[in-house]
Structure to design on (424 residues):
């Protein structure tokens, strides 16, 4: 239903129409006259109520804001704004790195620095050469180790020969021991020797 | 022409000449003098800017910071200010954009950080405020409730409606000025104002009814 129809039916302006009149008056910037409002005291009273309620809202809001920003606060804000502006325009200050009473570099002479460098280089070279020597040694040992690893048949033959050699050597060693004992001319020990059991004396 | 309008025009002319002078002094590198001249502009617009920021932020400290930021930003970008636009309008635009950015940041913060419960400090502050003023504590309390209800209703308005309502009704800007500040055309500004008033009245009426029911329950 249009506003005009509603007006015809009820004879009064509704809230939406009153608000529209108020908004139009604000947009025009001047107080506008409305034919119905001029002639209808009820609508005029409702329009007055709308206007005064909006005015109350405005006054309430402005009072609250002004109470929140008293003159002292505004003065502090003003000062703070200009402090910030001044700080923004000042060129950036470079803070010097904390300096020591005496520069650290003056304590060490060039000679000692060279000595330290030479020692470090010598150490590095020594370690390097050592590693190289070790590498060469291990490389030279490799063929000998390879030679030690002989085929299985050869090793079997060698084993039997080694066993035969070791058996004859044992025999010779024992007989030599016997001979030396027989030759032993320590009379004090002979009695002791007589008491000592021999391997041959054990019952078989 | 009314007295207020005449005063407005005089103020605007003074603003324009001050802004031009500051711009020229900045260009010549005479920064101390530029700041001195800029102090005039700050003095003239500081209260109004604080009001606008407070209506947006609803927090004194944040509003204070927003105003400071806006004045600093306006000073450093004064070279981009065009004289055909009133300084007031140009500056208000900077201020409102800053406030909206802060509100966005605050919303993001509040999403992740739990708010601090009202401690004894807040209660003491309120008690001091109530005791220190001329109206009775009951009047103070009622006024506080009314303001909170109004602020709550205003916060429920969509951003554009809220901006249009605050600029036009609280700050007395014309439809053209609101149009320049918000970037909306004048007829849209009018529609937003109409809707804002309708919604605000509905919300306030609802809030009033709820408060009445609450009081009746307490008394019974």
């Amino acid at each position: 239903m249009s506003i005009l129809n509603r007006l015809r039916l009820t004879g009064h302006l509704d809230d939406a129409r009153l608000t529209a009149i108020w908004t139009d008056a604000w947009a025009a910037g001047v107080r506008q006259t409305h034919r119905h409002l001029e002639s209808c005291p009820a609508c005029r009273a409702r329009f007055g109520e709308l206007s005064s309620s909006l005015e109350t809202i405005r006054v309430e809001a402005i009072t609250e804001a002004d109470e929140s920003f008293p003159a002292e606060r505004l003065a502090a804000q003003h000062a703070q704004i200009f402090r910030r502006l001044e700080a923004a325009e000042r060129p950036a200050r470079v803070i010097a790195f904390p300096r020591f009473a005496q520069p650290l570099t003056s304590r060490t002479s060039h000679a000692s620095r060279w000595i330290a460098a030479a020692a470090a280089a010598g150490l590095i070279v020594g370690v390097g050469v050592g590693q190289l020597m070790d590498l060469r040694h291990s490389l030279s040992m490799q063929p000998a180790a390879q030679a030690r690893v002989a085929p299985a048949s050869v090793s079997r033959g060698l084993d039997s020969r080694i066993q035969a050699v070791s058996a004859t050597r044992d025999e010779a060693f024992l007989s030599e021991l016997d001979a030396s004992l027989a030759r032993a001319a320590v009379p004090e020990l002979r009695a002791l020797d007589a008491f000592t059991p021999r391997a041959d004396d054990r019952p078989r | 022409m009314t007295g207020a309008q005449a005063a407005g025009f005089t103020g605007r002319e003074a603003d324009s000449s001050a802004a031009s002078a500051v711009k020229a002094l900045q260009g010549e590198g005479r920064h101390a003098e530029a700041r001195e001249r800029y102090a005039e502009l700050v003095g003239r617009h500081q209260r109004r800017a604080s009001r606008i920021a407070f209506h947006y932020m609803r927090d004194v400290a944040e509003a204070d910071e927003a105003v400071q930021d806006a004045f600093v930003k306006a000073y450093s970008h004064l070279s981009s200010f065009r004289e055909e636009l009133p300084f007031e309008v140009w500056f208000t635009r900077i201020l409102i954009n800053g406030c909206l950015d802060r509100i966005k940041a605050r919303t993001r913060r509040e999403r992740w950080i739990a708010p601090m419960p009202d401690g004894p400090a807040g209660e003491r502050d309120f008690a001091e405020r109530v005791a220190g003023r001329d109206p009775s504590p009951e009047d103070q309390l009622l006024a506080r409730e009314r303001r909170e209800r109004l602020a709550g209703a205003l916060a429920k308005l969509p951003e554009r409606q809220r901006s249009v309502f605050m600029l036009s009704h609280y700050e007395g800007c014309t439809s053209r000025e609101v149009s320049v500040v918000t970037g909306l055309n004048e007829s849209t500004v009018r529609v937003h104002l109409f809707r804002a008033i309708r919604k605000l009245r509905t919300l306030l009426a609802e809030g009033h009814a709820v408060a009445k029911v609450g009081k009746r329950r307490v008394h019974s």
